[in-house]
Amino acid sequence: MYLIIALGLALVVWPGVLRHAEPWGLSQGVVKCMLTAFSLLCIIGIRYPLQMLPVLLWEMTWKSLWLLLVALPAWQSGTMDDTIIATAFECAVAIIIPIAMPWGYVFDQHIRKRGDRWGAAAA
């Protein structure tokens, strides 16, 4: 999963990051920088797949939320335009993440496991 994401972003995002002639607007700059950071974290995930699972959980969560809160209402109201359709297809690719996710490990390590103590450590 990490390799697929890292390669995809390397092909799609990195050329524009490395060779952009004009300054980006606020939204475009935020998106490009976040995707670049995400691709770098996915490269780390190739080496440390279990430790980097929160990165995949974040990806799956934001794309699911976007599909439910933006694309679905636009589709239901008949207001989907070309940009929403294109983004919906890009987000729909995240359907592979829950298929590849080791849910037993996620449940044990991120839900059932006792959380770390806040504040000073017990002596």
From TrEMBL:
Keyword annotations of the record: Membrane, Transmembrane, Transmembrane helix
KW Transmembrane (keyword) present: yes
TM regions (residue ranges): 29-48, 60-78, 84-107
Protein name stated in the entry: CidA/LrgA family protein
Organism listed in the record: Duganella zoogloeoides
